[in-house]
Amino acid sequence: MKKYLDKTLSALERAEALTDEMTVEEQASQLRYDAPAIERLGIPAYNWWNEALHGLARSGTATVFPQAIGLAATFDDELIRCAGEITALEARAKYNAYIKHGDRDIYKGLTVWAPNINIFRDPRWGRGHETYGEDPYLTARLGKAYVRGLQGEKQTLTVAACAKHLAVHSGPEQLRHEFNAEVSARDLEETYLPAFKALVEEAKVEGVMGAYNRVNGEPACASGLLMGKLREWGFDGYFVSDCWAIRDFHENHHVTSNPVESAAMALKAGCDVNCGCTYVNLLAALEDGLITKEDIRTACVHLMRTRIRLGMFDDGCEYDGIPYTVVSCKEHKEVSLKCAERSIVLLENNGILPLDENKIKTLAVIGPNSNSVAALEGNYCGTADGYITFLCGISERFSGRVLYAEGCHLYKDRVSGLALSGDRYAEAAAAAENSDAVILCLGLDATIEGEEGDTGNEFSSGDKKDLLLPESQRRLIETVSAVGKPMIIVCAAGSAINIGAKPDALIHAWYSGSEGGTALAKILFGDISPSGKLPVTFYKDSDALPEFTDYNMRGRTYRFTEDNILYPFGYGLTYSETICSALEFDGATAKVTVENIGSFDTEDVIQLYISAPTEGAPIRSLCGFARVALAAGEKKTVMVTLDKNAFTVVTDSGERISPKGKFKLYAGCSQPDALSERLTGVKCAEIEIIR
Predict the structure, then answer these.
(1) Which are the catalytic amino acids?
(2) Is pTM, for the whole model, over 0.90?
(3) Contact 112, 48 (CB under 8 A)
(4) In order of start, what are the domains of the chain with their CATH numbers?
(5) For all residues of the chain together, what is the average pLDDT?
């Protein structure tokens, strides 16, 4: 038996043995994302590129969960781990089916390039909805959960997760191939690196992907600083470039002169596999003396180690029997529904919600996102075997009459090409006039906020120019508001939006997955209480934000500004009222009494924040959270373990220290800021802790 087939050896030993069976030409061929077969060694062709941001993506039918930003709004790491487990099962099921038919194409392998744990530092960034929001602790908690769900806990990985994009990467999309993100040592340690460190050290993520831009002058896919951090953290997986990012070295960043130099630079820095085509130049780089055979061997060993950890060269593994029928099964879609229910955020409510079916006989459902599948999907998504749009969910749940009107195009000034501007406003007004209440479904979708090249929003390459709804929708709000009927606005978007109106109720639904319409209807009619919380700050005005290209965190996110805030991070109403009291801390764990003093059964998210006694430290930082279910009138004691870094601060030099002095610890269902307290009507519990 060949040594690389001996399962009693470590994955590294087997990978080294397998790599040493190859010629240098064969080794170099395996460093492409579309690695060819080496038939004499029994190595099948393999395509490293697969996606699984919120369910298995781009490979046909799969369970479609809410977009990552919606999953973040659940503040529920156990549920997100479950979503990861389901995604991995479906990936294995489809992989098993594909290889039986000899299909080893893109989006069909076991190396999934998710999660995206970049920090959503600026609400204009089109790809922000792929992330878990603006907070490094929340991002780390949820990212670890998703990785653990994807990879499983057995010796053989279910699938290999990948943390992306290391690390200072969050727009602008239009400049990403040439941009140099300048970042301080403090912001690196305090904000941009913690989630990556946690996923490497604690979740043992198998892959890490680099970014397109430069970081302090170095291309992120060949950064001595960033790759040095990976080595410091003990990373022993594989590193992959973002797609065609290495080509940017010579074409846009101009740090090399040609593809041969770019390939050499990336490989020498530690980039194992090239998503793109630049690594076809590796043998030329070897011939020119820019790299060594050992450089090629090292990268190949890393890649073979991952494939061995996935069981690819074994006679069989425990996942071979996963049947195709698990894909998008009833049980999986029920978890997607639960994710959607817990993700939806209630921002405003004057008492109209939940709707009283005894008083409302006719509902008008109006707006371009009412019956939109795209408003459920987000980007990097699979294809559901059925979608419950907002209109469908409301129509199925409501016993009365539903009048539907599209109202307007998502962003154009007319729906019909030959019509005059505003061709659907009259229909919207008529539907509103003949209803008892209006549900106005507005927002965006991934055709106008997303990744450069993936959207129709090429005027901003997927980024947003401001925080407003498209003008067509602002005019629709004016038209419907003028009718004077009670109005609930449901905004489907992956980022902060200022709708510029004051409806009777306002819901932010994100991109809520294939079951989003059912989840929305259950909340509208009071079958469940809303319980989602904002994982990002909603600002009033983008013009008051720092420059989009400025990567300094001062003036950004709840941790470093209290100005220009519309709705704070961590905010979200329920149909009841939860109060926290009797907060205690024993050195590692906080204990707090939580009581539902309202008349509605609900779930809520207990949030722990800490303020440090150090000038320049964050105003406050999330350091723990727990989702709790409470019946009306119920009281519970909840224990929450605090972040291990809760009582540390970061110096200007990037050193994490433990200062002496009075810390303040807060517990509540929101932040302890004045705006959150005004919006919720509830004050957080707090204690002082002297260190």
Answers:
(1) 242, 449
(2) yes
(3) no
(4) 3-326 (3.20.20.300), 344-536 (3.40.50.1700), 578-690 (2.60.40.10)
(5) 97
